[in-house]
Structure formats: structure tokens, C-alpha cells
Fold this protein.
Amino acid sequence: MLNHILVPLDGSTLAECVLPHVTAVAPVTHARVTLLHVLQKTQDGGGSPAVDPVEWHLQKQNAEKYLEGIANRLSEAGILGVESVILEGNPAGSVIDFARHNNVDLIALSTHGHSGLSGWNVSGVVQKILLRSYKSTLLVRAYMPSSAGTTKIRYKRLFVGMDGSARSEFVLPFAINLAQFYKSQLILETVIEKPRQINRMPASQEIAELADQFVKKNQQAVANYFKQLLAQFSKKDLKIKTHIAIGENAIAVLHDLAEESNADLVLLVAHGETGDRRWPYGSVTTSFIAYGNTSLLIMQDLPPSEIHPTRAERAIMESKGH
């Protein structure tokens, strides 16, 4: 359950484009919201921290006034329990540490902030938070047209990518709550990938027939799975649409379907059937983070303790004696 939403803000209008989604998501689970602003440490020419007490206090006062204004706007939009926090340090590291030590369930992020838009789909700071926080994340595309201010978005279409596994169902409870709250259409999508033969020559008729049989069996299995889900949720007054697609590349097809659905929000679980613990996200979710064009809500299915640290992380921890 999403009980605590963290909203990092750097004072830019680009970062604030996440606010309409926050005002839409928070009431669904009665979540409290924490607005977080990080004051970056400046350095002198020698690389040491350059602290001007007067300047620092002025920056802090401006940040407090800024967050107070945002909190008031959220309160006027109907969000209760809004609090503000100001930290000093590295933006990405500060957000990650706060999220880990304050029972944050969801980090709401705009893809870009104070540094402005760029050709990169996700800014460097946001990418660091995504890769190291190990938290569920709401990612809003700052380069796409969106509502201004804190106007609440009313979700009409919710697109949920699934692979038929129990792990992919991790996102369903929240998706259903969101659909019920806004009377949205819930689109459940599965893509069956055609098996690929490692052969430079055209596939023989026998191989082609085996591939067709494989696809048909998976298609029937997913159809039965969706039928069971629809029966399970029949009493929840939901508008559910299920669809099974077949393609050479499941990720590419899923991207196309998400775009074509004109969904207000795409919902994915961090890991699919494989659930590989070496990375915070599986291949599908990683692709949607890097190349998707829709607002994206990712439910992290693994706790931080189960995600393997990278070699770089281990090296830093060892150097600090951890």
C-alpha cells in the first residue's frame, strides 16, 4: 500500500509537472506527502566546501517559502498531511537516503528539473534515484504536454503490462484501486513473443509449425488467465479490457500498444517472471524508463535487501568499512 509519497522538488516548473499526478494518486490510498528540497553544497576552487552562512540561510529561507507555497496549493487541492523537508548535500544521494530511512512507499519524480530539458529521456539525477532507491516510483515526462500547477489529473485509461506471472500481478491491487476511484478503463495487456531460431537459413516447415504451436499454447494459457482474472474482479464494478498481442519483440510491441492506447498512466511491476535480483528492474521496465513517452508508475516488488549491489556499490561500501 502506498501510504507515504516523497516528492523531490528543485524549485523548477519542470520538476513541478509531477504535482498533478501526486494530487491524483495520494487520495486513492490516503497517503501523506513529503515535499523534499535539497540545498546543494557549493565548493571553492580547491574542491572544499565553500560555505557563506548568510547566503546559506537566505537559500534556506527561500526554499522554506517555496515549499510552503507548494504545500498550500496541495492542501487546497484536497491533499491532507503535507509536510516539507529541507536537506543539504548531494541531490540524488539525499533523496535516496531519505526515502530509505523514512518509510517512503513511492517517490514521485519528474524526468527533468532545474537543469532543463535535454535529449536524454531522463536526467542524470533522476536516473541515479531510479537505479539506487529500490522504491516504487512515479515518473512523469517533463517534455510531454501536461496540466499546469496542481490541477488534479482524472485518469481515464490505465495501461497495465503483464506477462501472466504471479510477480506481474504485484501492480494489480493499486491499479484496481486507482481504476475504481476514477472509474477508469483498465487495460490489461500481454505480449506473446514468437520463438526465435538461431539460424541464418530460413526456418524449416517443421520448425515453423513448432513455433506456431508454441505461440498458440501460450495464447490459450494467457486467455485462460485473463478469464480467471475477469471472474475474480467481476464484482468490483470495473471497466476492464484485456488484450493479447503477438510479435517478434515483446518489448517493442508493448511500447507501441501503450502509445496507441492513449493511456494517462502506464503501470508496471519492476520485475516480471524472471525476477532477476541482480538489477532493480527487469528488461521491460528498464526499457519503459529509458524510452517510454507516457507517465509511468513502477511498483517495486523486491525489498532493497534482495537486490544485489553492483560492483561499484560494493567497492564504496568496502572503502567505508561497511
